[in-house]
Amino acid sequence: MKPKTRSSKKAKNGPNVKEPSSETKESLQDDDAMRLLDVAITAINITKDLVPIDLAKGILGTVANILIIAQSVIKNQSDFQAIVDKCETIREILERATKHATDDDLRGYLGHALSQLNKSVNRINSEVASKKEQGFWQRLLSVTSDRDRIAGWEKDLDRVIPLFSAEVLVGLTIGMNARTLGLKDNVHGNVERYHPPVPPSRPSMFYGREDLVAELTNLVVNDEHIALIGLGGMGKSSLAKAIINEPSAMEKFADRRFFVTYDGLDPSTITFETFTTRFAGALGIELAGADPMRQISAILRSASALVVLDNAETFEEASGSSALGEIPPAIADIANIPGVVLILTSRSRRNAPNVRWITKDIPPLELGAAQAVFFQIYQHANCSDAGEDIRNLLKELEFHPLSINLLANAAQQNDWSPTTLLKRWNNRHSKVLDPGKGKLQSLSDTMQLSLSSPSIQDLGDDGRRLLTIIAFLPQGLNDTLASDLLPSLPQVDIICDVLCRQSLVYRQDSFIKLLAPIRYYVRDSLQALDSTCLREIRHFYYRIVDCCLEEHDHYADIITSDHLNIEHVVAFNLAYVPDVIEETYDICWQFLWCLQRHLPRPTILTPIVFKIIENSSTRGPKACCLQYLGALYTTLTQLTEGMKAFKTAKALYLTVDDHENAAHCIVQCADIYRCQGRFIQSQQVLEAFQHADSWTFLSEASKAYVLYFSDKARMYTLTAFMDELFVKSGEDRDWGLPSKIWYWRAKFYHGGDIVQANAHLEDLLSQCPSTGDLFSRRDVLEGLAQIAFCEGRLSDAMDILHQLVEMFEGQYSDGVLWYTVQKAIVASKQENHDLARELIHKASEPFQFFALCNARAFLHRSYGSALIELAAGEYDKAASQFTATIEGCNMQGNLHAEAFNIRGLGEVAFVQGDFVLAAQRFAETRSLCVEMGVPPYHLYSCLPFHALSSRFEGWGLFLEGRSSFTNVM
Asked: Residue ranges of region Disordered (predicted)?
């Protein structure tokens, strides 16, 4: 029986009654406290002997010890009254909770609750005991210090006792009826039955998320609430199931892992009652009474718990006023319960406020995991033969887990061969992803679930209009330009935010994007493209292209960022919008020029331009587009494609009597030959044109243009006297300055007075513009750098090359790469091989995209690297680099570069004493010289930076037929 505490009525103070001193009051209070301690200790010891569970006996023994020590140590025992009351509550609960229990009951929730209580009382006991060990003199601790410590102990017990009490009240493990406890809080009596549920197992089809599962599980076991956000079908629920089945989660939360699913509910009709009923069902209880959250909280407070709220977008999107007002605070209250950890899965980002969520956007699968999922389902005999095609198909799905699963099941169920599967996908796209009904069996159903959410419905037609536009644009919608692109949608930014919150779209690199399967669904199933939006997008992008200049300005930035979208709009309008075809032709060639200037890359416009139907109104525009297409491919060193475009353009220009542009195309074809080292062919093309009928129709400037490029080819072959080169073109106003520059460079290359050449080039430098067209200035500086290099003024050469790098930085990435490699060659000449290697590395790092697209840049850098290793005496490395470069030369048909590298291999063989191999390499080099039309002794005359050091003399000895080569030639 619980001992009754004494109560006393406060005496009325008459006028003659003396008020007791504060010391007297405190003494009387402490006497009462001491008597209460005696009574409590006695009752606890009696109960300890009666309870059948050893763990409960131990807890009560510890509690009694706390009170015994308190009698002798705590100065202000009256402040200890709250702890005495807590200890009495513990005694009372343990007496009733364990009255009919056995040790078997400790395997369930009762054992967990007793363990938690045991930890708390042991912690308090240790702190109280430490005071006793400090000695008698410590008894006079400050009252404030004791009170603070006691308050902390009280708080600790306040946390544990309700948890333990709730365990008992719902009859956990031992099946007790809550009402038999007779406690005053009858809310617990409203919990009719408790049946602990079994959490869902780890999904069997779960691949490639190991690192993510480990990361998220670590957060969970460290008591962090996590929100898993993503598009339908991304595997959020599977991920949550994997987390709750991780060993560390199972160890911490045991069988208190609850999975609450809100799947299949209509957000427009969900109520707070629906929310709590689902929640309670997952906890294994049936609710009764008017306060369901207190009942749910009672269960959750009983011990640590991990709760998954799956498909949370259902209640996050609830439109009912009661749900909107009550559900978010309820989730926040649950999140604040000590020991409770929440995992939320949702398509929506409107997660409950006032909860410190760690939000994780769920990414698609990696390629390996996507393949594992696909081939686990699709098991066809010919799979191994179609591995690459299947990989490409999975990439096209952007590794969306649900789409992969649906596609694999469709193929397996229909017994499609890999070939048939690819054919079905190419013909039907998203329709293939609807093999069944329900969100797990149909992409269409999972999309309709998202589109039917109240937030999306509230957008009206504008939401779907915007989705179709985002699906139309291959890069998605530029977030920063959205209002400029779509002025007819004044709320476009708000619509984007809503679509993003619902995970229908996602933001990446300043674009609003759709995952590929969703993009296909929108294209296949939603309304047609809005003509107003298409017109606005066309108008905006066309204006940007039209305003773009050679300098990298704001317009160039937009073209660089939105290049795929602009390209797609141009292609779409060429194919389907005849009303603006003339404007589109004009924009097409301008866009190709913009690509060449600011972002050189191949383009999908190539086949479209070639297929333009030719008639009197299209031949000229088509020729213009082909001309700029040829220039783009020449920049990319895709010379075959460039040559084809130029030749086709030339023929079309001639049919419309546009001889000026025809001449330009012919010159470009000839210059492609020159860049390949095919100098004889280059000369022949230009000389033949000078005898064609078109020559008479050309302006003097165009004739000078042809002659200028003709002399650049003749300069390599020495088929004319040096004094004759660049003379005729030098008389032209436009081509005069470039011709004079190359006149003096040609004189220098072929043995002219080097001092005189240097003086004239320095004089011409002052005539070159420092802004705008920088190519004349480039040609002068390059010539001066070559002269300094040949004269041994290496520091001067390095300084001039550095000027060239600075001049092209931010404008021409290929120019920066080109002259950085030449700086490396100069550093190697200075025998600073480490700096040379560093510069070679630096030359490729910032321009990886361009170097990959531009074979000329690759050959230049690779040959420069080989020269550096050769000069450093690293002959094996040099040979490897020469060999790799030769392979590139063969692919490009570049005879000049091939000759340089084969000669390099010959020098390596010569140095290593393999004179037979050296002779073979030098013979190949000489044959290439004959094919190019270049005198072997003048192989490097026009390119001094490409020459090998004079100490490598095998080539010279071979040409003279001397020494080691006498017996092998």
From this structure: 1-29
Percentages helix, strand, coil for the chain (3-state, rounded to 5) are: 70, 5, 30
Q: What architecture is domain 210-361?
A: 3-Layer(aba) Sandwich (3.40)
Whole-number pLDDT of residue 180: 31
Average pLDDT over residues 269-274: 85
What's the whole-number mean pLDDT along residues 96-120? 68
Question: What percentage of the chain carries pLDDT values higher than 90?
Answer: 48
Query: Higher confidence at residue 145 or residue 398?
Result: 398
Task: Pick the more confident residue, 810 or 338.
Answer: 338
Q: Which long-range contacts (CB under 8 A, 24 or more apart) does 539-544 make?
A: 540/481, 540/484, 540/485, 541/485, 541/565, 541/566, 541/569, 542/583, 542/587
Each residue of 277-331: pLDDT tens digit?
889 988 888 877 778 888 898 888 888 999 999 988 888 876 555 566 788 999 9
Contacts of 491 (CB under 8 A, 6+ apart): 462
Residue 460 has which token pair? 């009206």
How confident is the model at residue 100, as a pLDDT?
Answer: 64
> Cβ(807)–Cβ(774) under 8 Å?
yes
Closest to 488 (Cα-Cα) out of 538, 532, 544, 537: 532
Compute the average pLDDT of residues 22-39: 58
Return the pLDDT at 49.
78
Whole-number Å distance between alpha carbons of 296 and 287:
9
CA distance 180 to 97: 10
* Half-sphere CA count of 481, side-chain side, radius 13 A: 22
Which amino acid appears at position 2 of this protein? K
Span 862-888, pLDDT tens digits = 999 999 999 999 999 999 999 999 998
CA separation for the pair 105, 112 (Å, rounded)? 10
Q: Which residues contact 492 (CB under 8 A, 6 or more apart)?
A: 466, 482, 483, 486
Whether the CB-CB separation of 512 and 479 falls below 8 Å is answered with: yes
* Residue pair 738/708 in contact by the 8 Å Cβ criterion: yes
Quickly count helices (H) and strands (E) in the chain: 44, 8
pLDDT for 649-701, tens place per residue? 999 999 999 999 999 999 999 999 999 999 999 999 999 999 999 999 999 99
pLDDT for 523-582, tens place per residue?
Answer: 888 778 889 999 999 999 999 999 997 777 899 999 999 999 999 999 999 999 999 999
Buried-exposed string 623-657: b where 16+ CB fall within 10 A, e elsewhere: bbbbbbbbbbbbbbbbbebbbbbbbbbbebbbeee
Asked whether the predicted pLDDT for residue 942 surpasses 80, the reply is yes
CATH architecture of the domain with range 457-529: Orthogonal Bundle (1.10)
Buried b (16+ CB within 10 A) or exposed e, 810-819: eebbbbbbbb
Contact 678, 708 (CB under 8 A): no
Q: In CATH terms, are 210-361 and 457-529 the same topology? A: no
Domain boundaries, the chain: 24-171, 210-361, 367-379+386-435, 457-529, 854-969
Q: Which tokens in the block code for residue 109?
A: 């929730």
Q: What is the end-to-end Cα distance of the chain in Å, rounded?
A: 120
Task: Give the mean pLDDT of the chain.
Answer: 83
Query: By three-state DSSP, how is residue 513 classified?
Result: strand
Class of residue 751 by CB neighbours under 10 A (exposed 0-12, middle 13-18, buried 19+):
exposed
Q: For residues 600 and 773, give the distance between their C-alpha atoms in angstroms, rounded to a whole number.
A: 19
Does residue 596 contact residue 635 with C-beta atoms inside 8 Å? yes
Share of the chain above pLDDT 70, in %: 82
Confidence check: pLDDT of 777 > 60: yes
Q: What values do phi and psi take at 508, rounded to 5?
A: -150, 125
Is beta strand 225-229 parallel, antiparallel or unpaired with respect to 357-361?
A: parallel
CATH topology of domain 854-969: 1.25.40
